[in-house]
Amino acid sequence: MYICSDVNRFSMKNSQLYKGSLTTIVMKLLEENGRMYGYEITQKVKEITKGELKITEGALYPALHKLEAEGVLEVEIENVDNRLRKYYKLTEKGTSETINRLAELEEFIKNMQSIVNPKLT
Amino acid sequence: MYICSDVNRFSMKNSQLYKGSLTTIVMKLLEENGRMYGYEITQKVKEITKGELKITEGALYPALHKLEAEGVLEVEIENVDNRLRKYYKLTEKGTSETINRLAELEEFIKNMQSIVNPKLT
DNA sequence: TTATATACATAAGATTTCTATGTATTAATT
DNA sequence: AATTAATACATAGAAATCTTATGTATATAA
Q1: pLDDT digits 0-9 by tens, B56-96
Q2: A3 in a structural domain
Q3: A59 vs B: CB within 8 A
Q4: Residue B88 sits in which domain range?
Q5: Is the Cβ of B49 closer than 8 Å to some Cβ of chain A?
Q6: Beta carbons of B102 and A16 less than 8 angstroms apart
Q7: How far is A102 from chain B, CA to nearest CA, in Å?
């Protein structure tokens, strides 16, 4: 019988703000690191944000599959220590898409800062 | 007969990134301006972001109703030029919630910048 | 031997947002 | 005079995304 030991498998209080930013984060990390597999992405994000953002598997894997279906990512399956790994990397299309996404992110951050701190604008 | 003249009533290419930030934006604007009505909020955001972010009515009005139901906002209905206006302002609870939200927003922006620009971290 | 870490997956439900439509008044344009 | 645009609210259906929960499987640490 399978027993699920639910310790730290999920994010707990991820701010609503992160909604909509998952694919941008994934694409940026892949641009930076060449290729990564799903689990590695979750760990990397946790590390970068000092544990503040925990990407859930239920969000990540479907997102990766969608990006692959859209031709943004391509996958290489490997076997490491008898364990399956699916390495993802940006396609050519994905690379140019990432440039757009990062520009959008910069604009977004600028706009949010304008709203939060209208004096500086 | 009613004819809908659909010019500029909706946002067009709002980045996915804005998903999840609507209530934070609304709360911050109300903290800043004391009280505002829905239409005013849409115009203010358009102005602040120089037309880049256009809040849709289909998103805003349900969000305002929900925040009111949660006790974050309270409403004062007024009649101006034969037109209905519903002014919203933060409740006491809403004011303290806003402080939390803005802290979360700062963290979020910091984390997103860490991801985009890992060298500076 | 039990739990944790690694590594994938999907389905149900909740939530949010977009698109489209609806009503109504006033102001501007043609 | 008639039409369009602007002001001001509203809601319903669909789409998209994310959370929660569950499932399978191997390797390692306690």
Answers
A1: 999 999 999 999 999 999 999 999 988 999 999 999 999 99
A2: no
A3: no
A4: 19-120
A5: yes
A6: no
A7: 8
